[in-house]
Predict the structure.
Amino acid sequence: MQKSHLHQQKSTAPAEAVAGNAQPVQYVCEPETRPRAISCLKTPIASLIRAKVLIAHTTPLVRFALASLIKSSDRFTVCGQTDAAPVARGIFIARQPQIVILGLTLHNGDGFELIRDFRRLNSAARVLVVSAQTDALSIQRAFRAGARGYATTTDDPEEILRALEQILIGRLYASSSVLPRLLEYLAKGEVGPVKSELRALSDRELQVFTLIGRGFGVSRLAHELRLSIKTIETYQTHLKQKLGLRTAAELSERASHWICASMRRNLRLKKQLAFASRFRPANPGICS
């Protein structure tokens, strides 16, 4: 069998970048050092220029799955991976990716602020949020910060690739699990969730509130966000003041109720979407 002259990229070992007491994960791909042999090309040269993708997500399994998915595509290549916001900024500056796949919860930072940072550093770069957070407020704030697409960790791999392709050519994209929720709130003329007091929360406060609703205690919050316990307690104090609550137990109950209500709405929308899909072709999820 004739050997291919296509050069395979190599990955370096994880770089040790210390943030607090933890070492955030970082993988950076080396640039190609040899041109591809023209004699082995069967497609236009332009189609072989792969878009560089940076993956920034706290969940190792999600990072692995996304990296494997991208490597299976002939349109994209992974230029770096990390679970920490400061490292993501460093890779973004050094490698200049066309696309960033981003989780909203990162070590030493939050996804919303990171989206704004990426926009300031390179307005041409596109951000695709892939998150387990499917509440309307998180989705709206992600797009307002500058994200070009939003998908969930439960979406099919084909939909993630479709999202990457669509935002790469300049379109907005909401996956099939996200779009119905956006349409529901647009139809009601709402720009925020039913619990309007949550609109007063900052992006970081909303992140802490969401994790509290998922059962995170103070110590686990501090570990997950790479913040001190004192800082987490300060956030809790601000949340209680803004939401008119007196105790940590009331805050936990309010956050849990909000998460459960969001999950029930998501389940209802999924059932409605599944029913509607019986009578029309599958919606690719393109917003514009």
Notes: Residues 1-20, 30-47 have pLDDT under 50 and may be disordered. The two ends are 46 Å apart (CA to CA).
